[in-house]
Batch of 2 targets.
Target 1
Amino acid sequence: QKEVEQNSGPLSVPEGAIASLNCTYSDRVSQSFFWYRQYSGKSPELIMSIYSNGDKEDGRFTAQLNKASQYVSLLIRDSQPSDSATYLCASDQTGANNLFFGTGTRLTVIP
Amino acid sequence: NAGVTQTPKFQVLKTGQSMTLQCAQDMNHNSMYWYRQDPGMGLRLIYYSASEGTTDKGEVPNGYNVSRLNKREFSLRLESAAPSQTSVYFCASLGNSNQPQHFGDGTRLSIL
């Protein structure tokens, strides 16, 4: 069964700390991975995409992909209260742009 | 969200009623998608359309039908609504491979 799994949390970190969000996937053919942020009552918005092994950095966000271990993670440095949201991991498991989403990890940054 | 417009934003139905959720995008994207989001379940794909004139089933298509009316519009129809279809429905569109899907603001649907 094709699955994307995330710890649902909640994850709480103090302001200024590093938040680490993790995701595992079951389908070895997955090539594309995405992290979406979703504020309560709002639609998902893309914050990071990653396609190859290693790290990809964008501002305070770093996505990490390890295809051999089938996990993808998101690090948020210098966490801010405005980062408090649910973070959704998604993979394109069919290669046809059809995303499979995890259930999301709810992050709370405590001022 | 700029580019993908969903109507209505909220709707309450009675069991057995029918309804069509509308979605339109102005980004000239080929692919469009309908998801539902339930608490603790994440986003699940209902139907998608890779191009104008084509539609395919996703993970949870039962109880739904779709129409890709033209390149801009992709509608989702509930023929006989059931309480299990109470959910938040999101429409999304995609231009090219490996690009992010753009989501609409969602339709919050309650079925009594």
Target 2
Amino acid sequence: TQLLEQSPQFLSIQEGENLTVYCNSSSVFSSLQWYRQEPGEGPVLLVTVVTGGEVKKLKRLTFQFGDARKDSSLHITAAQPGDTGLYLCAGVGNSGYALNFGKGTSLLVTP
Amino acid sequence: DSGVTQTPKHLITATGQRVTLRCSPRSGDLSVYWYQQSLDQGLQFLIQYYNGEERAKGNILERFSAQQFPDLHSELNLSSLELGDSALYFCASSRSSGRINEQFFGPGTRLTVL
């Protein structure tokens, strides 16, 4: 199993602040996906990054895939209460089948 | 709405019992995946089916089994239930496997074993 470590595990910030969460592994992934999950619901796909060094933007969210395709980061600019949730990274390994999920970063944005 | 449906939403049962969880994938998706999510373990891959055939196995216990039917819906069977099986069970679907393999998750079934 290719392990993904996410940090920080918990993050509590105020509305308007910026933040970055990290997803690291010693393994190389074919691609990496970021999901957001709200309590009691299924994860929702935010973005997929495929190429080493790739940067993708989704409104105030910026995703980056490491050059070696072993790590990724998610940066949120001017966080809003609606950004609250569990952010999960998941890697597609060489088999191309199941996703290996990190344990997530639980984000709380207070007004 | 991801287009993936799961039933039931909640399930409460006793130790030693057997339950069946059901999943219907998004229209056109041939792959179905089952995941278990608990507080201490996070999201763990259990098993994948592609067009009716088992494609990959993860951390699935021998007490658990799954199948995918000709209409592509899938069922996850959990037997001889233990307290530790209490968790959220998610089904996900995708068009195909491969390098990108974007998966879309259902709302989950919360299983409570008493």
